[in-house]
Amino acid sequence: MKNFIYVLLIMIILSCSNKEENTNSSNFDITELSILNSSGTTPKKGDPIILTISLENKGTDVEEVEVIPLLSSNRFSDFQDVKLKGKKVMLAAGEKTSITINAGPFIHDKSTDKHYALGSGEYVISSILINEKVDKDFSGKTFSITSSNSILVPVLFDPVYLTKIGYAGGIEAYLEKAFTRKVELYENETYTTFLGGLDEMMDINHIFYVIETKNVEQVDEEGGKCEKALALAKEELGLANNWNGPVGTQKANHGFDYLMALSRDSFGGVACGWLNVQVTGVFDFDLSLERSQILVIHETSHLLGSPHCDPLQSYVMCAGEKHQKYIDEGTYVYNIVSRNQMSNKFD
């Protein structure tokens, strides 16, 4: 009899071990999932996504349910089972409903304190937690985000930076104004105006993801400002390794395109194309908004392919503050020589 009981216990243990871990044993069932953008079409890079989840209470009681989707990328590394923001609802017995959850284009997984961007590529809702139970059996879990002209940029921001230049409008507004501030393009004695700034001239759309952090120079990492920024990005974004280059959308950077760090230090700026990063500081002898913003777009223009100086000086890529249009109007002027070497290197 003892041997029989022992064998029975072993069989029960083996039977339990063969079942899939964390399967959904609740009364709730997800049958279908769709992922679209706000226009009801396939999401493009830069779009927030809207998840519509079909849910049914198969139990006999009214219950509250919390639904949390987990997202994985088939393109970007260290982008697996990222928790999206969940939603709670009450469902009566037998009731069916649709739950909508918004996400992106940037995601902060609070359970891991890691940050992600929805770059172009294929994704999958690997599972959905229903009151902490796992449901993997539903349709529509795989979707794609198509390419666009959006560029998803994490900005590591030393708050003293804005204090020094006396700008009180917030870092997001500051950057958006810098990249959409009117520029003119000079070619053969002719000026072409782009009211939408560098972004319009290049037909790109910067979307910034700002993280307030310490100054780059405070990072304990060998090398210059760029190398310190890479290490800081690992710490702040939760990357598996330091930020990865060269210029272009790299699979190891959680879906982000290029890295920007803003420093309080007086050095102007530096762009390291082989590392896919630009670090912009200030000039203590000129803390004007015009001078600080021209420094920011100057360094990004290097990542887009511009050399440091044009054949003629007094343009954005070479002593742009000396151009008469800058002096008279605060207008940033690019030389066609620079523009011809610039392109969107991010996909």
Describe the model.
The chain is of the alpha+beta class and 347 residues long. It is 22% helix and 34% strand. It is built from 8 helices and 19 strands. The protein has helices at 2-17, 160-165, 171-179, 197-202, 225-237, 289-303, 324-329, 336-339, and strands at residues 28-36, 49-57, 63-73, 82-83, 87-91, 96-103, 106-109, 114-117, 121-130, 133-135, 142-145, 150-157, 183-187, 190-194, 205-212, 259-266, 269-272, 277-282, 332-335. The strands form 5 sheets. Strands 3, 4, 5, 9, 10 and 11 form a 6-stranded antiparallel beta sheet that branches. Strand 17 (269-272) and strand 18 (277-282) form a beta hairpin. Helix 3 (171-179) crosses helix 6 (289-303). The radius of gyration is 25 Å and the shape is elongated. The model is unreliable at 4-25 (pLDDT under 50).
Tags for this model:
about 350 residues, five-stranded mixed β-sheet
First CA to last CA: what distance? Answer: 69 Å
Q: Give the amount of beta strand, in percent.
A: 25-35%
Report the principal-axis shape: elongated
What is the mean pLDDT? 92
State the share of residues found in helices, binned by percent: 10-25%
Helical segment tally?
8
Which stretches are low in confidence, meaning pLDDT under 50 for 5 or more residues running?
Answer: 4-25
Helix and strand run: HEEEEEEEEEEEEHHEEHEHEEEHHEH
- How many runs of DSSP E, i.e. beta strands? 19
Give the biggest beta sheet: 6 strands, antiparallel
Oligomer: single chain
Q: What radius of gyration results from the CA coordinates?
A: 25 Å
What is the SS-derived class?
A: alpha+beta
